[in-house]
C-alpha cells in the first residue's frame, strides 16, 4: 500500500497495524516514495 504524507499522518495507527500484520506500507510525497 502506498499513502501520502498527510494520509499517513491521519492514519498512522492503522498503518502501523497493517505493517505489523505483514503488509508493505510505503509513505510517499506526491507519487515519489520517501
Automatic annotation (TrEMBL):
One of its GO terms (molecular function) is DNA binding. The keyword DNA-binding applies. Keywords: DNA-binding. Belongs to the phD/YefM antitoxin family. This is Antitoxin (DNA-binding transcriptional repressor) of toxin-antitoxin stability system.
Amino acid at each position: 500500500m502506498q499513502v501520502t504524507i498527510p494520509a499517513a499522518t491521519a492514519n498512522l495507527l492503522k498503518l502501523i497495524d497493517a505493517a505489523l500484520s505483514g503488509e508493505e506500507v510505503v509513505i510517499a510525497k506526491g507519487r515519489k516514495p520517501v
